[in-house]
User: What shape does this take?
Amino acid sequence: MIFIDTNIFLRTILNDHPEFSSACKRLFLRIKNGELDGITTDLTVAEAVFILQKQSKFVFSRTDITGVLLPLLKLSHLNSSSQNLWEQIFTIFVKKNVDFIDAYNMVVMKAAGIEKAYTYDHDYSKVGLLERLEPR
Assistant: This one.
């Protein structure tokens, strides 16, 4: 089992380094072909989304981010704790136009059986997965 860090995703997606980008693409191909088993963390994915959306010299739209990141996350030999939730998270991120972390939190909480969230963030009401409550 090998860990895949944010910069490996970014070099693959951005294709911005002649040596590293090619090497990263070959690494993902080996994972895709089952030659290697990889693992990444949910924070790694969130960091990649943040960089692609806000920090990259190539600013990606939500749809573009989903289009380049989700296929990598769905590789059968790349695991993460939210493996079966990524598609729903990215769908909410794009279609409901909420922050990635909010989409992630809502889907993960719902999957854990949580039905209510205390927050002042109205994005939770937009999505409707959880009942949004405010402390009083």
User: Anything to note?
Assistant: The chain has seven helices and five strands. The mean pLDDT is 95. The longest helix spans residues 42-55.
